[in-house]
Amino acid sequence: MKKRVIVLGAGVTGLSAAFRLSQFPENEVHVLEKETEVGGLCRSFTEGGFTLDLGPHKFYSNVPGVTEAMSDLMGDEFLLRDKTQKLYMGGKYFSFPLSLFEMVTRFSPFKSFTILMSFGWQALKNGFSKQPDQTYQDFVTNKFGGALYRQIFQPMAMKMFGNPEKLDRRLAEVRISSPGLVAVLKQVLFSKKVDRTVSAPEFHYPKKGFGQIPLKLMEKARANGVHFHLGVKVTKIETGNGHVTGVWMSTGDSKTEFLSCDQLVYSIPMQSISDLMPELPAETRQAARFVKFRHTIVYYFLLKAKSVLPAMWVFYPEAKFRFGRLSEMTKFSPFVAPEGHTALMADFTCTSEDPEWSMNDEELGKHLLKQLKPLGLFSEDQLIKCFSKRFKNIYPVYELGYEARVNKLRSLESSFENLYFVGRLGDFNYNNSDQCFDMGFSVANHIQEKGKVAEEWQALRIERFGKYRIVD
Prior knowledge:
alpha/beta; FAD/NAD(P)-binding domain; seven-stranded mixed β-sheet; five-stranded parallel β-sheet; 37% helix; 24% strand; globular
């Protein structure tokens, strides 16, 4: 008799888990996804002859075996690209991460002096009595000094996650790959090679858009017999005797269907568990209410121009820009736009209360074009079309105290021995796509080899997932 595994969510984590599980004939795998397409934020779409991603994506991994596995999956469609990225500040473009040479030669003498003195003073203080890092602000200030923190890291964090004084240090630890000014200085003085666990000079990208990755995963999984239920809404998770027994889902025609399961892989937003399991204790439901995500908006400008940015993507820390980053699709692949055309993307995060979330596309376009105009990237007559894509609950916010709330929800894995939280959304884990791929394969291998040995699953979470870092 086959073992039925239900996977909630068809992002990269869910698809990877389904694909891996499908390689074992004793599994019957079902993937449930609320959208009519797979891929989550990693999918692509077409518009007027363009293939567009939902924000800039790259595939690079220092997780053993992941790049090789993805290369085997994608074959000749997987292009190797030299990475280019910059920072725009004070009317100038800088390399990113900032080089010590640029800090000294391209900032004003006063600003360069202030940054270096601030760093020196911080290093001196840390040498005598370094206080434990509690917040994002603590972590970055101790690493780079207060001046550079206030110049770049504070405004970028404010744009993306909110007040860095209220964010847990873990977010900075995972997100900020730069080793700090001491390591940069050593690299300059002793000609050390770039640490590829921190920054990689190249990455892989699918020829026809990043969405080829989830489509390929679905194609392979479906060929192995995986059942995909797209455009369905999960309404309830049934439990009994310490197990998840199945899932209720509703379809577009308002019909409801129950699907029993032996294992449940949960990769949809973690806080949704309180709605899907209403019998949970009050303290668990309370924890779910305070697990926070930020929404994201990607605004597209389709242009009759060959190129508009000096790099694949550019960061904009200054408060006068609502967006934190601009990126250009044709720099990732020349096969995603008509000849002589390109697509510029402005992406930023927000909450439901921010005014941009309520603006229609015309209002938001005018708002952003006003900010873009001084940059001189394109003229009005080059603009073919502009529009947005908006997504709720995309970026985990590691507020102070978040870990206790997340662990409260993760403890449900002990209460229900066939339940697994995985992925950026499902495990509230700040993953890149390579780590999502690895996490999907890891949970599938664990289910296949171990069933549910709680101690070994938690060890895997700590020893493997807990060591994920974003590689610049």
